[in-house]
Design a protein that fits this description.
This protein is α/β, with parallel strands linked by helices. It has helices spanning about 1-10, 20-30, 35-45, 50-60, 75-80, 85-90, 105-115, 120-145, 150-175, 180-185, 185-195, 240-260, 270-280, 285-300, 315-325, 340-354, and strands at about 200-210, 215-220, 225-235, 265-270, 305-310, 330-335. Helix 3 (about 35-45) packs across helix 8 and helix 15 (about 315-325) packs antiparallel against helix 16.
């Protein structure tokens, strides 16, 4: 199939297409990391240093794919046809079945992919797919230079987690824009909510992609800023970053019930989840199953409020979540806390109270 596609599409002249400024505008318009855009730019110019390209331009080395050894490592083989890449695509949640016949020419495949912009969430799907291409390239380099072999489904998971982390970071940056008056008043709103609840709980989740470790961090304090309890919880739950954040919120509610806290303000730096919880609508997504549990648990309290907090004032829970990725068992601190935990929690509190 790879050879047939190549023969068919080599008949096309792409020189005219490569002058198409619209394609380049669409590349730079994507909301992805700059290094991924640069990678995509190299792919579209077919100057990525694949073994086949290096061999053709320098005569050095071998053109063959070192992962499968079955074909020359062209750009298209690397991204689509290699057995490892095929396994990655099978586990990726977004499928482009209608573009199968174009895989022999990356330019033609990418050009047709842009038609998805016309559908709902189409641009986001293109961005996620571009991030997957980047992670396929990274995995190839890990094997060629470090002899580190990663399973296809894990590469797919890493690509999705990386994209969601980038998306959430962009949401936080957007919130920092001066013209966003709702965010300008966010500190006042959070400070007011804290006075209305006796227990304030911060949650966060962390992913260590290199070691495939996941962690949850929970910080609980009273409305005067005094630490009550903190948790670092390693978890085997895998999935999108938003799913891990939802799991962190549910875990925090279970801890609060066990402690018999009755009036809680739960703060998360995952704005998408907070918005979903505060503007509830049913759907059949996996994450909604967790959110439904959260809504049910929240009704067990006399008062339970969900509110968004920016990452930079959620440093304690984030630190606890990162620490959890190094643990085997759950760790809790109560009454006596590590210095770094106390310092971070105090900083978070003062950032809202000031």
């Amino acid at each position: 199939m790879e050879r047939n596609n190549k023969r068919l599409l080599q008949q096309e002249s792409t020189s005219k297409n490569k002058q198409n400024s619209r394609i380049w505008h669409q590349v730079w318009d994507l909301n992805i990391k700059h290094k991924v855009k640069h990678f995509l730019w190299k792919c579209l110019h077919d100057i990525l240093p694949t073994h086949d390209n290096i061999f053709k331009r320098t005569g050095k080395g071998e053109p063959w794919c070192r992962r499968c050894g079955e074909s020359a490592e062209t750009l298209e083989h690397l991204l689509f046809f290699c057995r490892t890449s095929e396994q990655i695509w099978k586990t990726f949640p977004i499928q482009w079945d209608g573009l199968e016949h174009l895989k022999g020419s990356f330019w033609s495949w990418w050009e047709s992919l842009q038609q998805a912009r016309e559908r709902a969430d189409g641009k986001a799907h293109i961005e996620m797919t571009t991030n997957l291409l980047w992670h396929i390239w990274k995995a190839r380099n890990n094997w060629n230079f470090n002899l580190i072999n990663q399973e296809g489904y894990r590469i797919s998971q890493y690509a999705m987690a990386d994209w969601f982390e980038f998306k959430e970071a962009n949401l936080l940056n957007t919130c920092d824009k001066p013209e966003n008056t709702s965010v300008l008043n966010s500190h006042d709103k959070t400070a007011e909510l804290q006075q209305q609840h006796s227990t304030i709980i911060y949650t966060d989740a962390a992913v260590d992609q290199q070691r495939d470790k996941f962690g949850i961090g929970i910080t609980a304090r009273d409305n005067k800023g005094n630490l009550i309890s903190t948790w670092s919880i390693p978890t085997s739950l895998k999935g999108e970053v938003a799913t891990l954040e939802a799991h962190a919120i549910r875990t925090a509610l279970l801890k609060a019930l066990k402690e018999n806290w009755t009036s809680i303000l739960l703060l998360s730096d995952c704005k998408v989840l907070v918005d979903k919880l505060n503007h509830w609508s049913e759907d059949l997504s996996d994450i909604n199953i967790i959110l439904r549990d959260i809504k049910t648990l929240s009704s067990s309290f006399w008062r339970c409020t969900f509110s968004f907090v920016k990452r930079e004032i959620n440093t304690c829970s984030y630190g606890l979540a990162k620490f959890a990725t190094n643990l085997v068992n759950e760790t809790r601190w109560k009454n006596s806390f590590p210095v770094w935990t106390s310092t971070a929690a105090q900083t978070d509190y003062l950032a809202v109270a000031s």
